[in-house]
Task: structure prediction
Amino acid sequence: MRHQLIHQDENKTWAVVLETGDEAGACLLEFARAQQLSAAHFTAIGAFQRAVLAYFDWDTKDYERIEVGQQVEVVSLIGDVALKGDLPSLHMHAVLGQRDGNALGGHLLEGHVRPTLEVIVTEAPAHLRRRHDPVSGLALIRPDKELP
Result:
């Protein structure tokens, strides 16, 4: 994984490039921790040699794994960084294109890069925190203020 700061004003924007063999989530989490990000969003394109997506089943309150055991295009990967406790955590969704043009999508659990994943990470100006939601059982971003 390589990165370069490409813009800085009150917030920073980086280009983060992953290479063959890198696992997307692990690398992006490592980057978020190294940069001490407490709130950010990112987008990416590239390709995976294999991946694991997931679908959240509301009834069971658990993720159903979707194994993708083939080379796929990362048509779109979007995600955010927020604090869970005192550490950054990621939430990522991906759309993956197959050889025949069909697409698979869902929550990204694993993405093993081949040959590249080009990620643009933009820092947000405020802290975001994930808090346990008792209804879903998930750690969800909870802004500090509510609209009237």
